Amino acid sequence: MIKKNLATIAAIIIWLVPIFYFIHIYSNLPQTIALHFGMDGKPNRFGNKEELLWTMCLLTAINIGVYFLITFLPKIDPKKTARYSAETFKKVSFLLVIFLSALQLLIINSSITGSFTLNKFMLPMMGLFFAYLGNLMHNIKPNYFFGIRTPWTLEDAETWRATHQLGGKMWFIGGIAITIITLITPAKFAVPIFISIIIIIALIPVIYSYIYFKKHHQSSL
Predict the structure, then answer these.
(1) In sequence order, what are the beta bridge partners of 45?
(2) Range of the domain at 71
(3) Around Cβ 100, how many Cβ atoms within 10 Å?
(4) For residue 17, how many other CB atoms are within 10 A of its CB?
(5) What tens digit of pLDDT does each residue of 67-94 get?
């Protein structure tokens, strides 16, 4: 029980970091700040700092809402299958809190500095996020909420297992590749590379699930 509470307390502390930081610097922000940036990292839209306030409120609500939703999925799952991956769901929800809190800090900092380095922080951070998810993927049991949920993986547990083994490896390798490549390439190249890798690691496991299911269930079809 203590261990479970510590995880929630840690998540709440991480969730609160950007809130307190924003409160601390809010009065010192100029009334007009950068709110949107182009691919070159330069601002292309300015607005009132109250806009940033509402953006932070929305992201904060999403952050804590997603954490508790994923954490309590095993309890609200009508099929009761999510309980077999409860620990993995908790790890994913904790990671999302870290990711969304870091995103909030990045947005706040960009509004202060007037620049946004997409390929030096945001894209590498997303690469690490995918790599971490890939590392967890082989632990996910069949469920209707999280994972590579195709008609074929949901129909057959063995197809689910094989697909998530492949998907986990691809997401981990793809995530590491995204992190490294986007760090060393200009933003105008980093974004297309990022999108290309995401499409590859998303589509191949889906196609593989169909091929695997057909191959191992031909006699019953």
Answers:
(1) 36
(2) 1-116
(3) 20
(4) 14
(5) 888 777 767 666 666 565 677 878 888 8
